[in-house]
Description:
- With 306 residues, chain A is mainly α.
- Chain A has twelve helices and no strands.
- Chain B is mainly alpha-helical and 337 residues long.
- Chain B has a domain at 123-283 and 310-335: Orthogonal Bundle (MetI-like fold), CATH 1.10.3720.10.
- Chain B is 65% helix and 0% strand.
Amino acid sequence: MHLRGRWWLILTFITPGLVLYSVFVLSSFAQGVQISFTNWTGYTPTLEYVGLDNYVRMAKDGAWWRAVSHNAVLLVIIPVVTLGLALGLATLITRGGSGTLRAVRGAGAYRVLFFFPQVVPVVIIGIMFSYVYASRGGLLDGLLRLVGTDVLSVVPNGPLGNPRTILLAIALAAVWSSVGFYMVLFLSAMSGVPQELYEAASLDGAGRLRSFAHVTLPLIWSHAQTALIYLAIGTMDSYALVAVMSMTGTAADSGADVMSTYLYRTAFSFNSQFGYASAMGTVMMLGSVALALVTFRLTKREELEY
Amino acid sequence: MTPSPATSSTTHAPSRSEGASSRPPGSAPDGRAPDGSASAPASASPSADGPRRPRRRRPRGSGLPHLMLVPWALVVLVPLVWILASSLKTNEEIYNDPFGLPGELRLGVYVDAWRQANIGAFFTNTVIVVSGGVVLTMLLSVMTAYVMARYPFPGSRALYWLYLVGMTFPVFLAIVPLVRIVQALGLFASNLGLVLVYAAFSLPFSIFFLTGFFRTLPKELAEAAFLDGAGHFGVFFRIMLPLARPGLISIGVFNVLGQWNQFLLPQVLNPQQDEERSNFVLSQGLAALALGENYETSPTSMAQLFAGLIISLLPVLIVYVLFQRQVQEGLSAGALK
């Protein structure tokens, strides 16, 4: 075919995107790594290199390690609760109908409703939950009072105002937003499990729990792994939720710092320490790449045949 | 389009071929619920149920799951409904009686929120930035994706890796230099700046999604058109682009939701310029309102904030209801990138 037209199309089609992408994305990443080796604060036109100073400082910075540990805590709570709930709900929906094999009545409606929080903007979720947790006039407090307890009063300043509880409170808001999404992923995975296997299990006398444990779970295990990795990446990158929910709290402002919020404050509040913040960004990048490589290995592995 | 129980009464029995089971989740061509939404009680599923058993088992079999599904439905719904109800109440009413109904129907709160709390300006800015950002994203990504899917050339591989970087690296690494770049271009604190940056960061995923989509389209039509003497551009605009419509809608919806959700990028690139924060987008404006709430004096200041939440949630809700299937498809493809 006409070769000249071919090259003309290739060039005109990829160039605009590539220019935009290079200017704003690629060069930003490259400069981010570059700035991490400097003590730049934004006030000088030139960069002064300080070698690995920023990285050494990070290794000794208690606040950084505390932020890392907060990420680690979230990394445990959010995936465990989210995936547990998502798996449970998906199972109830696909196999909760009469008999043991059918979808529950109203499955479509549950699916639509449960997925919705995933599309609610994160800032809205953060503000909404700040008021759910509010110690005065909050939804949670009100509900607990309706039931006749005021357990929440043991937490001074409310769940978000207390360094001991704020991370858990934030994690639960994250769970609220993503359970439905992972439930839908599991629903898709479960639809790939051949019905015959359930029929066979049922003929062998397996009840719902047993067929879940011995049929469903093994066959969707690879999907659960993938979901776990994506939740892990999402949790590492969580920013807006923590930023919003810790900002309205009274006592716990830095008590809930995660890597991203600490980076943001280092760059834009604490005397714009751009070099140090960029070093944190570089470390986070290395973490993401490592996770991506793990993902790649796992998903390339041969799928279970059935 | 929406898998309401009525429209999607697929029975449970049909094809469960190997092909279907090896397909990655979220990419089922009909995107339909694996649950089959089979409310249809009389669907002729040749299941283990004998003709007599359903009658006896139904009460136990179908009541129990709801006992566990309904609570989660409440967990999802109650906070949203509570915010909606509270948006009509005074601060006093919210503090003293969090579950009471509003004393009167104060729809004026929404007007106050729009004008006094400046939600109107935030909303307008967001609409401008997101429309610009999404249109630009779609335009650039569909062109790049078409080349990546159909025009292998020396260097395609490099292009693939370059865009993969953008999907893997965290945006936090980029924010410090971004400020410098955007300032140098004179685009700091401007809608145009946000449009360009949103589009640039949305490109990688959109390109990969659309590349995958173009690969699924039949080659024969394009080849026939070439034989008829059509040029490369003609084939793209007259044949491939119309065929790509479903993919474009999915990725468009995905980007609308994603860019409406942006918080970090505007926070960094679009700081407050005046007293009324008239340059803010919704996420920034709402966060600022929530933060200022502690010092607010208006008796309906909380309601105004809540009204703001509802106002910014409304477009998302509409998109979600209209594009139910595409939303779930696009987002799950996002997770399984």
